[in-house]
Amino acid sequence: MRESIGTAWIFGIVMTFIALFSSYLAFSINYSKSFRVKDGIIERIHKHNGFDSKSPSTLQDIDSFMASINYSAEGNCYKICTAEGMDNKHYAGVKGTTYTVGDLTKDKTYNYCIMKVSRSDSSSSRKADMTSSYYKVVVFYSLHIGNMNIGGNFRTSGETNMMYYPEDVIFK
User: Which of 160, 24, 149, 171 is nearest to 74 (CA)?
Assistant: First the structure.
């Protein structure tokens, strides 16, 4: 009887360590994938100099990139964008190639969020204003083991470099 109780304890300890190791591995894989997605989105925004409508558009390019690495995490953009204190015309939630500007609700989820920060430089020696902007991208990830979602959503954010005269079909 004593040996069976000892074996049960050892079995329980081994299973606990296997579960902890699997959770850590799943979390680190999703974490690294979110950084890869964030960097890919920023790279494509730079490549297209903003969000253009040329063929393929920036959103189509980002969507095909996300499909190629099988990214499907979603999160709520409402809390993030309103916490930043952004004007509702300068943030959007994107899911696939569709986007929602400003009218984000608390119950709708998106693949990533975009915020546009604009700056203009006007001086008396110039006739026109020099408009520059940068974009802040927020990507979501969570702990998945198989089809089970364990834990809440986490996020990764990054910013593009300053772009002069960016093309923009999302934020007009």
Answer: 149
Phi, psi for 150 (deg, rounded to 5): -105, 125
Alpha carbon separation from 50 to 53, 57, 59, 149, 165 (Å, rounded): 10, 10, 10, 33, 9
Extended strands (E) in 10-147 = 50-51, 91-95, 98-101, 112-121, 130-145
**Residue 155 CA from chain centroid, whole number:** 7
pLDDT in tens, 91-149: 888 888 888 887 777 778 888 999 888 876 655 455 455 678 899 999 988 776 666 66
Separation CA 64–CA 114 (nearest Å):
18
**Type and span of the H or E element at 11:** helix 2-48
- Containing 149, the helix (H) or strand (E) segment is strand 148-159
Q: Cα dist. 79→11, 98, 107, 153 in Å?
A: 43, 20, 10, 12
Residue written as token pair 């006007």 = 122
| Rounded CA separation 33/144 (Å) | 12
Can you read off the two tokens belonging to residue 114?
């975009």
Q: What SS3 state is found at 115?
A: strand
In this prediction the pTM is 0.80
The rounded Cα 104 to chain-centroid distance in angstroms is 16
